[in-house]
Design goal:
117 residues, mainly alpha, 2 domains
Length: 117
């Protein structure tokens, strides 16, 4: 079998230039193909992006409306009586916690202050 065509030979300038030109052409073709693919994707996604932005704006508007409604309800329907009852409940809870903590602290102090026998 004749394999003389596989033998390495001298590389000529025209062959080197042709090789570089071929690689450059392949790179440009790949870049062009990727640009075409990205353009198609961008055009397909664009309406979805617009719809998503519109939905986000609508949600923000609804949140603002809900917050305004909450403020209006709090101003109109929460009376001073309700607030004073809540204050009394909070005061009772705080005093209950304080008394429990005082009892716990006293028990701990007594346990620590005992002399070992």
């Amino acid at each position: 079998m004749d394999t003389s065509f596989l033998a390495p030979g001298p590389i000529t300038w025209p062959a080197l230039v042709a090789c570089i030109a071929a690689l450059w052409g392949l790179a440009k073709a790949a870049d062009w193909a990727l640009a075409k693919l990205k353009t198609g994707t961008r055009e397909a996604v664009s309406p979805l992006t617009i719809d998503m932005s519109a939905a986000k704006i609508e949600i923000r508007r609804l949140e603002d409306t809900l917050n305004a409604f909450k403020v209006e309800v709090a101003q109109k329907y929460v009376t001073g009586d309700v607030i004073s009852r809540l204050e009394h409940r909070i005061d009772d809870m705080v005093s209950s916690v304080r008394s429990e903590m005082k009892e716990t602290r006293d028990a701990m102090l007594k346990a620590f202050m005992r002399r070992p026998e």
